[in-house]
């Protein structure tokens, strides 16, 4: 079914409110409302887990630690693990949700519409291919930016609120991304890569597989070489033999490293999105 043929007959499809051009965002929302509801529910659940852990469960965990007695080691470890479990799962799932975004953009948002001919039908209703792609991507992009930004702020609050109950390793992949704009950048990158795969392949399943594969390569390599994104600092020690020296990243390097990675991911997103528009214009004249 076309995004515009919501009601009426095949000969006289009903045009969305405001006409085919102004009604395109409405049509995109209506066509993909199930996916948007799932995304919204997922984000609300993740945010709820963070608020619960940091705002309610933290005091209970401290009481458990206080009751551990004279040998608090294993007892404290279990309590802290229980506290950080929900928070860790929330950040991990939201961080890696860019795979779902890429799959959705390639398989349903773009690939399926081109494969089924519904996009071409929209182009016959006073909507140019370029405008169709722009609005089709703009709607989920706005939702990704809004949802991701809220999650980052809530996660930063939850992560910092009870640092005595959290591990100190800020380099964990999910923590590293979820504390700043890289989380949003990965989502937008998945959207752009998925769009490019959908426009090039014009088939939902192949585009889905290619988009997820490309996002895996982007993410895997950035995580692998993350330490090389910023110069390391020198560390020194003292001892009977004159001490030892090494190189490491102090926590003060978090923001430089994070912003460099964010810039790279956004660069890939821009290139992929621009490539999608270029390919579409070439194929549609």
What can you see in these coordinates?
With 285 residues, the protein is mostly helical. The protein has one domain. The chain is 72% helix and 3% strand. The protein is built from eleven helices and two strands, in the order ααααααααααββα. It has helices at residues 19-22, 24-31, 33-66, 72-95, 98-116, 118-123, 129-161, 173-178, 182-201, 204-224, 254-284; strands spanning 233-236, 245-248. Strands 1-2 form a two-stranded antiparallel ribbon. A hairpin with an 8-residue loop joins strand 1 (233-236) and strand 2 (245-248). Helix 7 packs antiparallel against helix 9 (182-201) and helix 7 (129-161) runs antiparallel to helix 11. The chain is elongated and about 75 Å long.
Helices and strands in order, then pairings?
Elements: H1 19-22, H2 24-31, H3 33-66, H4 72-95, H5 98-116, H6 118-123, H7 129-161, H8 173-178, H9 182-201, H10 204-224, E1 233-236, E2 245-248, H11 254-284
Antiparallel strand pairs: 1-2
Brief rundown of the structure:
The protein has 285 residues and is mainly alpha-helical.
Defining traits:
mainly alpha; disordered N terminus; 285 residues; two-stranded antiparallel sheet
User: C-alpha Rg, in Å?
Assistant: 23 Å
Ranges where pLDDT stays below 50 over 5 or more residues in a row are 1-21, 238-242
Order of the strands making up the biggest sheet: 1-2
Shape: elongated
Number of strands: 2
């Amino acid at each position: 079914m076309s995004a515009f043929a919501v009601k009426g007959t095949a000969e006289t499809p009903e045009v969305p409110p405001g006409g085919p051009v102004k009604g395109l965002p409405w049509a995109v929302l209506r066509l993909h409302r199930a996916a948007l509801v799932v995304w919204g529910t997922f984000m609300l659940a993740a945010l709820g887990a963070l608020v619960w852990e940091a705002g309610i469960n933290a005091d209970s965990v401290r009481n458990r630690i206080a009751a551990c007695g004279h040998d608090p080691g294993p007892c404290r470890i279990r309590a802290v693990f229980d506290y950080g479990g929900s928070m860790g799962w929330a950040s991990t799932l939201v961080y890696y949700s860019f795979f779902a975004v890429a799959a959705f953009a390639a398989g349903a948002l773009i690939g399926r519409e081109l494969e089924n001919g519904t996009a071409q039908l929209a182009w016959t209703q006073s909507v140019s291919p370029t405008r169709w792609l722009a609005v089709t991507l703009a709607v989920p992009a706005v939702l990704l930016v809004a949802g991701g930004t809220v999650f980052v702020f809530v996660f930063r609050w939850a992560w910092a609120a009870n640092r005595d109950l959290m591990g100190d390793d800020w380099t964990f992949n999910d923590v590293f991304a979820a504390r700043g704009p890289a989380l949003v950048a990965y989502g937008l990158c998945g959207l752009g890569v998925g769009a490019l795969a959908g426009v090039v392949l014009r088939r939902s399943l192949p585009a889905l597989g290619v988009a997820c594969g490309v996002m895996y390569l982007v993410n895997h390599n950035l995580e692998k070489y993350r330490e090389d994104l910023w110069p390391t600092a020198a560390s020194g020690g003292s001892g009977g033999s004159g001490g030892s020296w090494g190189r490491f990243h102090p926590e003060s390097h978090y923001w430089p490293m994070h912003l460099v990675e964010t810039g790279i991911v956004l660069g890939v997103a821009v290139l992929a999105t621009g490539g999608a528009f270029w390919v579409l214009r070439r194929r549609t004249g």
